[in-house]
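Pilot study result, target chain (251 residues):
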Amino acid sequence: MKRMTPMLTLATGTVLAAVLFTMSAQAAPPAPAADPGQANAAAPPGAGPGAAPDASGAAEAPADQPATPGAQPAAMSPPPSAPAASPAPETAAVDGTWTGRLDSGATIALTVKQGRAVAYVCDGRSLEIWLRGTVTGNDLDLSGKDGARLTGTVEGDRVSGEVRVGDKRWDFTATATGGTSPALYRATAQVRDAGVDGGWILLADGTQVGVVTWNGKPISAPPLDPAFGTTIVNGVTITAVPVLPDAGTGR
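Predicted structure:
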């Protein structure tokens, strides 16, 4: 009887432990089931349930990756501009002095400076005509008293054209003097209650042609001293000055 007592005690303990384990298992709450939607959201698109994320996706750079700091955008070439219009060629200056003759035998002198011109026609006896005007390109256009008109063309060292006064017309040709000395002189003064108006043409060979009008009467002009611009008319010393296109005399 004493031998059976330990065995009964062991059997009783085993049964009690089994009962306690069974009761503990029934009392524990059940583990929550996994949500299929959450599993699919964690997986990348196209992966089935339970599929592992694609490791290569983490290494891919986004398509619109920003440019490297400091890099400059490519310069845009400006649109080609229309070619600039070529400037009109400048007309060469025709400044100079020319002397020559009309087909009537009268002498003519012409001076051009900076687009302006002055001319004097004289026969050394009574005819004299002063004209002033302009030069456009190589074309001359001058006018004077009583409807006098001179038109002509400069061609190198020669000038040719026409002088008209009323119904009278004369052709002329003149050649460049090639120097800088004035070819035209004029004197105007009031002497002894008489008006004096004289004009001279100094030719390249040293000869002179001129007319002096004393109190309305034309006479042949006495020689002019070019060094001083003086001469004597009827016992009176007269001083003449060079005539240039920008001078006020001549009309």
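One observation from the pilot: Residues 36-63, 247-251 have pLDDT under 50 and may be disordered. A full batch analysis is planned for the follow-on phase.
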